[in-house]
Design goal:
The chain contains 12 helices and 11 strands. With 344 residues, the protein is an alpha/beta fold. Bound molecules: pyridoxal-5'-phosphate.
Length: 344
């Protein structure tokens, strides 16, 4: 499959902005090329537009090559870039599953791209046939989310591969929660499939939501396009430095322990929820949250709020009637949740 045929012509022909730091690459010197304030305060210089140091570290932690890695201001930047690179406004289309992450639709709408939503089945599994029959000659990409938000489940890898192997569209697999799943996701398959873009993030398992660092992992060709279209200085220097530090061997070890604790707590919270009168159904979770169907979600939501426990009410979402999405907290926070639900 020739992915370059899916790229907008203006993007294929785009000459990217060349920064002062692109034109001179030495390390130490008298920098009089970027109109910066010369007095050192730690942030007076522009950040590395290529995030070289941070990418090397992420690549080492994840076992990737830096040329397959794009870093954005959250995964949301990567989602937006996919539209801007591949989808001609008011002409092209994409498909997304529903219920799922809300940003695909917002990014589609802001880019004036028609987004066709294909419902998951009742058990939140992929309806592959419905997705395939929704593909038109104008469809550029299918957005999937696995483990899916808000349902929490991994989607069938077999089905996703079938979709990829049609070689008609880009398949975007949002793996924001993959670290919580007992599955290696689609990164190991990227070499085989040029039409796949995997999205991951430092916001969830890695504990850096406040920094805003998201990732796209794909072929060098697609990553090259994303780098060409992004704002030159899309990750500020404090975020680059802090993320680098948070991914030191010692901090990676700490994150892995937290991850194990969150997964253990997920199991415990699910077991506790089984015994709560207002709970109707607990959906299986491969993520750091649990979708729970309640007798009356609005009532439970409000009573939790009164006790300053905030969960996400998903009742108004397709296939999520009377359901709450509950993030796994610390053991103490989870105890508080369980206690309030018991007392409700
Ligand atoms: C939280 C989340 C993200 C992460 O977004 P960032 O912009 O990287 O914080 C991406 N996709 C899904 C489905 C999410 O739930």
């Amino acid at each position: 499959m020739d992915v370059s045929k899916l790229v907008r012509e203006n993007i294929a022909n785009l000459a990217p902005y060349s920064t002062a730091r692109d034109e001179y690459k030495g390390e130490i010197g008298v920098y009089l090329d970027a109109n910066e304030n010369p007095y050192d305060n730690g942030i007076n210089r522009y950040p590395d537009p290529h995030q070289f140091k941070l990418k090397e570290r992420i690549a080492a932690v994840k076992g990737l090559k830096t040329e397959n890695l794009f870093l954005g201001n959250g995964s949301d930047e990567a989602i937006d870039l996919i539209f801007r690179i591949f989808c001609c406004p008011a002409v092209d289309e994409v498909i997304a599953i529903t219920p799922s992450y809300g940003m695909y639709k917002v990014a589609a709408n802001t880019n004036d791209i028609k987004l066709t939503e294909v419902k998951l089945k009742e058990d939140y599994s992929l309806d592959l046939e419905a997705i395939i029959s929704a593909i038109t000659p104008s469809t550029k990409a299918v957005f999937l989310c696995s483990p899916n938000n808000p349902s929490g489940n991994l989607l069938s890898k077999e089905d996703i591969i079938k979709l990829i192997e049609l070689y008609k569209v880009l398949v975007v697999v949002d793996e924001a929660y993959i670290d919580f799943a007992d599955d290696e996701g689609f990164v190991p398959l990227l070499e085989k499939y040029p039409n796949v873009i995997v999205l991951q993030t430092l916001s969830k398992a890695w504990g850096m939501a406040g920094l805003r660092v998201g990732m796209a992992i794909a072929s060098t060709y697609i990553i090259g396009l994303m780098n060409k279209v992004k704002y030159p200085y899309n990750i500020n220097c404090l975020a680059q430095e802090k993320a680098f530090e948070m991914l030191s061997a010692e901090n990676v070890e700490k994150s892995r322990k937290e991850l194990a604790e969150i997964i253990a707590e997920r199991k415990r919270v699910m077991a506790e929820l089984e015994n709560i009168a207002s709970v109707v159904k607990i959906y299986p979770s491969d993520a750091n949250f649990i979708l729970v169907k309640m007798k009356n979600a609005n009532e439970t939501y409000n009573s939790l709020i009164e006790n300053k426990i905030i969960v996400r009410n998903r009742s108004s979402v397709v296939l999520c009637d009377s359901s709450l999405r509950i993030s796994i907290g610390t053991p103490e926070e989870n105890d508080k949740l369980i206690k309030e639900l018991r007392d409700e």
